[in-house]
Structures are given as C-alpha cells and as structure tokens.
Automatic annotation (TrEMBL):
InterPro entries: NAD(P)-bd_dom_sf (IPR036291), Sc_DH/Rdtase_CS (IPR020904), SDR_fam (IPR002347), SDR_oxidoreductase (IPR051911). CDD domains: 17beta-HSD-like_SDR_c. Belongs to the short-chain dehydrogenases/reductases (SDR) family. One of its GO terms (molecular function) is oxidoreductase activity. The keyword Cytoplasm does not apply. PANTHER family: SHORT CHAIN DEHYDROGENASE, SHORT-CHAIN DEHYDROGENASE_REDUCTASE FAMILY PROTEIN. Keywords: Oxidoreductase. This is Short-chain dehydrogenase/reductase SDR. Pfam families: adh_short.
Length: 284
C-alpha cells in the first residue's frame, strides 16, 4: 500500500487532499498543529472507513517535525509521497505589517516546508523513489500589495523547489509545485479590509477576492490535482490549478515590471475600471 504524509490537514486544501488520497487507497498520515479540532475530519474518516491517521505536528518546530515524521517511519516504514501544504497568510502594506507577521509567514510557508522535506529526503534517497509536492500559489509568480509578505514566502518556495528538483532527480525523486489561484478556502475568505491603513490596496484586493469567490473554485479541485501528480509518472515541475491560475500568470508575464507597478499604483477609479475591463470582475 502506498503511503502519503500531508501537512496542514485541519481544513481547506489539506483536508480535501487527505481525503482524496485516502479514497484512492493510500495509507495517509494527516498532520496538523491541533488534532483536537479535527472531530469532523475524524467522522468522515470513520464514515468512509479510510486508512487515515491524524498526527500532531507543528511545521514551525524542528523537534515536532522530527518527532512526528521519524515516529511514522519507525512504525510504518517508508513514506512514498510528501505533500507540503501547511501555510498561513498575513496581509498588509510593507510599512504597516508587523515584523512578527513577516517572520511567521516565512516560518510556516518556507521553513516549514524545508523542515519536512529535509527530514524525509534521506529515506527517499536511500529507497531511490519518492514524490514531494509543494503547495505554492499563483502568488509565487505575482507580487502585489497587500500580499507582499505572503508572495515573498511563495516566491521563496518556488525557488527552493526548483533547486530541489535538480538535486533529487538522479535519485528518482519527483518534485512538483502546485500553484492554486483563488480557491474557496477560509484563507481566501478571510482576506479583509484594513480600515486604518493609509494604503488602498487591502480594500481593493478584498474586493477582488470577494468578486472572484462569487463563482467559487472548491479546494477539491486542488486536491484532485495533487493526487493526479502523485499517481502519474510526470516530471513536470509547475502545475497551476484553477480557472484563473494560468490566465493570471500569463497576464502578469505580458506586462513589463514598470507596467505592473503602475497598474497597482493607479488611483482607485482607474484600478477598479482596469479590473472590470481585464477580468470582468466588479471589485468595488
């Protein structure tokens, strides 16, 4: 039986990914910071008789990651697939966002992935097989306010994943980056307006997300793509997911850096009109 370890499974993409792998016949190790909050998840596992074990693991902690992953390996043997999904979001202007928020984002979204990956690579390298799937974002290609800190973590994740893929391919370890667009998750719905900010960007982006979520893309779409990558033999590195993901990435590539800065620095009326004309979304 194939095995998969998935981080950040308490809700959203991580939860749906764990269920997708369980339904596909995998033995799943679903990790999260607070398993006490997973009653609904446990009920689904029991109702569907899925081989999913919930474990406590805080990807921000070296000790927690090593204890959890090494314990699983010692008890159950090898892990075939690692899905680094755990992530957090903080938003605000560069000037106004607290340094602690910048550090927290990088600790989870970047260093958390490194902790889990570095702990598992020796086993995968020894076995000369494995699959590591890192959940990044369209924000790993597109940086705009008020998501600068979040984008920085995803840009970093993209870069380290690309380097990792080069290092481990000779050992038959596949690396894939999944890049969701705007997905109907709690994280996306929580993008809020900072009424005290001197910058207009949080209001604009909250409006854009809200308009996009009027026709929501479910997290199951991302979960299905992650499972598809694991089940395939593809060596493709990047996988945009969602109806807006590839269009967003290609649209940004069509602009010069200076055009991109000007687009986001425009006054409110011009920005909202540009969003309407470009995406057909009323973000007001």
């Amino acid at each position: 039986m194939k095995t998969a370890l998935i981080t950040g499974t308490s809700k959203g993409i991580g939860l749906e990914t764990a269920l997708a792998f369980g339904r596909a016949g995998y033995k799943v190790f679903a990790t999260m910071r607070n398993p006490a909050m997973a009653d609904d998840f446990r009920q689904k596992i029991n109702t569907e008789s899925l081989d999913i074990s919930i474990s406590e693991m805080d990807v921000d902690s070296d000790a927690s990651v090593k204890q959890c992953i090494n314990g699983i390996i010692q008890k159950h043997g090898q892990i075939d697939v690692l899905v680094n999904n755990a992530g957090i979001e903080r938003h605000g202007s560069i000037e106004e966002l607290a340094m602690d928020d910048f550090k927290a984002i990088m600790e989870t979204n970047y260093f958390g992935v490194l902790r889990c990956t570095k702990t598992l690579i020796p086993q995968m390298r020894k076995n000369r097989k494995g699959c590591i799937i890192n959940v990044a974002s369209v924000a790993g290609h597109i940086s705009n306010s008020p998501l600068g800190a979040y984008a920085a973590s995803k840009f970093a994740l993209e870069a380290v994943s690309e380097a990792l893929a080069q290092e481990v391919k000779p050992f038959n370890i596949r690396v894939a980056i999944v890049e969701p667009g705007i997905i109907n998750t709690q994280m996306a719905n929580d993008l809020s307006v900072d009424g005290n900010s001197i910058y207009p960007h949080s209001k604009r982006m909250a409006g854009l997300f809200s308009a996009s979520l009027q026709t929501p893309t479910p997290p199951t779409l991302v979960a299905d793509k992650i499972l598809e990558i694991a089940e395939s033999n593809t060596w493709k590195l990047r996988h945009p997911v969602g109806p807006d993901a590839e269009p967003f990435i290609q649209w940004r590539r069509s602009l010069t850096d200076e055009e991109w800065v000007d687009w986001n620095a425009a006054n409110d009326d011009d920005w909202y009109e540009a969003v309407q004309n470009t995406f057909g979304l009323d973000a007001r």
